[in-house]
Amino acid sequence: MQQPRHPGTALPYLVLGCGILALSLSAMFVRWAAAPGPITGFYRLAFASLILLPLVLVRTLRRPMGINRSNILYPLLGGLFSAFDLGIWSASLAFTTAANATIIGNTAPLWVALASILFFGQRFSRDFWFGLALALAGAALVVGADFLQHPRLGIGDLMALTASFFYAGFYLVTERGRVTIDALPYTWLVALFAGAGLFLINLALGNPFVGYPRQTWVVFFSAALVSQVIGYFALTYSLGHLPASVVSPTMIGQPVMTTLLAIPLLGEIPGPLQAVGGVIALAGIFVVNRAHSRATRHLAMVTPELGAAPAANDDGVESDIQRDGSGVVK
C-alpha cells in the first residue's frame, strides 16, 4: 500500500481551485461550439497535446520524464478513461437532459471512495461520508431541479452513469501515476492517449472531423487551452499531493462554479433552490477536506517515525510530501 502524503502547504488546494474554475468553463465551450460533443472533446485533447508538446520537450532536455514500462500504464489508462468519460458523457446529452447528465456524472466521488475501500483497503470516517453526502446533495440542487422532479433512469442517464465510472477511474490511476511521473508529462500523455481514444470513438460514431465554421475552431482551441491544459494540469498536479478521495469530492464545486459563470456568460440566473444547493455543496466540500486534515494530523501523531515516500513533485526534487486517503482511519 502507498505511504500517506502530508501536504505541507496550501498550494495543492490553490491549484485545485484554479482547476475547478478552468474546468467549469467546459460546459460553456460545448454550448458555444457548433459541433457534436465527442468532436469538441477530441479537438480539445488534440490541440492540448500540441500546446503542451514544446513545454514537454524543453522539460525533457533538462531531465528525463521518468517514463518506463512499470509506470507508463498509469497515463495510458488515465487517457483511455478520459476518452470514454468525455465521449460517453457528451453522447448521453442526446438522450437525457443536461441536468440529469451532470448530476449522475458527479457521482464519481462515490465510486472513488468505494473503490478505495474495496481495492486499496482504505476506511473513511463518518465526517468524510457526511461531507460527501452533503456535497452530492448540494450539487443535485444546483444543477438538478429537473432530475429531482423526474427521477427516472433512461438510456441517456445510464450512459452518464457509465461515464462517471470512467471519471472515477481517471482519479484513481492518476493518484498513483503521479507518485513517479511529474504533472506536465503526465498531463501531456493523458491528452495524447485520450485524443487517440476519442478519435476512434468519433470514427465509430461517424462524426465529421472537418467542415466547421471559424468560430467553432476558436472554441476548440480555447477549450484545449483553458479546460484541458490549465484545468487538467491543475487536477493532475493536485492528485500528486492530495488523495483522489479528497480531490474528487472537491471537484463537485465545478457545477457550482459553472452555475455562477452562466450568469454573465449565458444569461442564466440561478433560482433560490440552486443558491441553497451551492451553499450545501461548499459545506460538504469543507467537511470532506476537514476530515482529510484531521486524519493527516492523527496519522502524524500515531506514526511519528514514518518516513515520507519520495514522489514526483513537479520541480525535479524528490518530495517529502506523503499521501493518505481523506478521512482514512488507520
Q: Can you give keywords for this protein?
A:
330 residues, 0% strand
Explain this structure.
The chain has one domain (11-302). The protein has 14 helices and no strands. The protein has helices at residues 11-24, 26-32, 37-62, 73-92, 98-105, 108-120, 126-143, 145-149, 155-177, 183-205, 214-239, 244-250, 253-266, 272-302.
Give a summary of the structure in a few sentences.
Helix content is 71%, strand content 0%. With 330 residues, it is mainly alpha-helical.
User: SSE string, helix = H, strand = E?
Assistant: HHHHHHHHHHHHHH
Separate helix tally:
14
- Give Rg in angstroms: 19 Å
Low-confidence stretches: 1-7, 305-311, 315-330
Sheet-strand content, in percent, reads under 5%
Oligomer: single chain
Biggest β-sheet description:
none
Q: Give the averaged pLDDT, no decimals.
A: 80
Number of domains: 1
Number of β-strand runs? 0
Helical proportion, percent range: over 70%
User: How far apart are the termini?
Assistant: 12 Å
Shape: globular
What structural class do you assign from the helix and strand content? Answer: mainly alpha
List strands and helices in order, with pairings.
Elements: H1 11-24, H2 26-32, H3 37-62, H4 73-92, H5 98-105, H6 108-120, H7 126-143, H8 145-149, H9 155-177, H10 183-205, H11 214-239, H12 244-250, H13 253-266, H14 272-302
